[in-house]
Amino acid sequence: MLITATNEAYALSLLQPPGSYGVDIAVGEGQSLAVPPQFGGPGVGLFTCKTEYVRQMPGRLCGETVDASGKRGYVLTLSTREQHIRRERATSNICTNHGLIALAFAIRTAMLGKSGFKHIGEVCLANAEYLKKAIVATGKFTLPYSAPTFNEFVVRCNKGKASAVLAAIADKGVLGGIDLARFDHNRERDLLIAVTERHKKSDLDSFVSLLAESAP
Prior knowledge:
The protein is an alpha+beta fold. Helices cover 34% and strands 19% of the residues. It is elongated.
């Protein structure tokens, strides 16, 4: 069985979809399309699978149909795994909070449409590549990895610790990224940076200037 996990849904606007290379189950996170980051949650879990595994999926499935007048509508087509039907044997428990996030996600994706979704993916990638090159051009940072990236990448301080750079930037009211030494003490010079479609070129340029001023 082949299972994939995508932590940034917008990346799929530029990559081949999991189904195109035979994935059995594909999961991901759609937080960036629906809700702001807030102390670790809530998120927007994305889950899809091949037809033969549908009846083992948790949650409910909504299907498209038509009413007596031939107008398009949506109904619950498979909800036999929920707590209101299966009681203690249920595999899912849908609550109001889930529904609100699902609604936000549905509205956002409907507003974007296919072309809008792809456009934001392109903007995220372009912003990240621009920022990556600008940071390296300061001469105070290098890129420790050569693999392709989407909207997150790691830079390494040539001198000093990433935590010191972040602290200096934070004093100026800017959240500069994540010190990877929090997760691995051998990476005290590594800094994880993320870019989104909401960052303008002027924002990126200001950030590069702050990094250059703060790094030894």
